[in-house]
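Session log. Operator J.P. requested a structure for one protein chain; no other inputs attached. Running the standard single-chain path with token output.
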Amino acid sequence: MQATQVLKKPWGLKWRSSVWFVTLVVGLGVTTDLLVYSIIIPVLPFQLEHLGYKGISGLVGWLLFAYSAGLVISTLPIAIFSEHYNARKYPLLFGQFFLAASQVMLMEVPTYWLMVIARVIQGISSSVVWVVGLALLCDTAPEATVGKQLGLAMTGLSIGFLVGPPVGGALYNAFGFRGPFIFSIIVTAVDFVGRLLVIERKDAWPHGIDPAAVSEKPQAHTEAINEDVKDSKIPDNSSPSPFQEAVAAVTPTEHSEPVPVPETRLPLLKVVTTLLRSPRAMVTILITLIQGLVYSATEPSLPLHLQDVWHLAASKVGLIYMAIVIPSLISSPLAGWWSDRGGTEWVMMACFILSIPWWIVLIVQKSLALFIVAIAIQSFFTSGILSPVTAELAAVSRAHVGVGYAHVYGAFNLCYGIGSGLGPVVGGQIYDHVKRGWLAICLLAVGLFLLGSALTISFTGDRPLLSRIVTRYREGRLFKFRHRLANTMGCQVSASRTGNPNST
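Structure written below.
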């Protein structure tokens, strides 16, 4: 009996494995992660007071740190597991169990140290979304549109943070401490159903469905990938990627035999050394750290600055946070779309350079309206960095045989977690201990973004901008030299023919 007679096609195979559905599920996962993270921020202080604790601000800070700690310590094991077993769907499902468990614990535990454990577990579930979820999306999306799909998924970051705190506060006032957690558990359950429905690309392939080639003719797609394999600079002692070998062997049709996909996996040590030797990879990871640190450095100090300078109450501070979050709903998909068409280096460079003047404007304390406009425009460009960074990491993975998407997004998650963990600490300490703390924080952001601009020019993209500038400069000088030489030689020939040596 042939293998095709044994395989049974899952219902809804085409749409369950499609790029749009996987993007929707990953975006929902990011939204759920940020919503669950932020929905309890306005209610935790009241619960701690209810339990009889003192020093509430410091205790809440450690709960936020516990989340980052869980995210950082779990990133590497999750990335290694996902790549070693080529598994995306099941880690995503288990991540939701961890997330639901953390919500139940936070809702019911009577002591602070159990709350800390619950936040660590929540950080672990967040790692699954940011490592495995982004890897699943890159597995599914065509290379030409991966930036746009990542940008669309990244809008979940802004949506979750925009919805979480106000909904949490409203539910707490209406139903008490359990209200926000019940809502977040319901959202987690919806997210779980979406993850359960997803069919990975490797599971759709034996049935003749390739979501990454959905907009292309099968034969043209096969020829294009074969041409890429032929032209790619793969060392003699290495082999093409598993999917390239499968495509070279057979074109997917509804009646194709299942294709055994050979696995190419590098040991963890070789993955690390490969990334360390790649300036493009290391710069992208460093930019991730910079973006995470800058983005989170204002979290503890912005409310205090608004209160000190303009005497704003908490409700009005919340409205200003909307001015920060809403622009990122536009910039993330726009930056991803532009990355696919113009290149990640141009988008990252534009976002870095165009955000710097607005960080300087934020120093001005004369007009609240100017401050709100400046922080909205700054947020638009600052949040736009994340989509091209994730697209650049996908390109790094494709450029190195044996380095999987989960590997590079594990490094991304690790560095972003470190940056977002250090940011509030650094920003809070600067604001408390420096005479003009807000000025120092803004200048720190300017300095780090100037560094990010220099790194982007020098190392980002298939052909970094600096190398293009140098090449064009050399070509221009060479052209001028040849032009002068040609003119000189022409004059000399003309002089020799006329017998007039002074004609030159």
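Operator note: The chain has three domains: 7-263, 267-462, 465-503.
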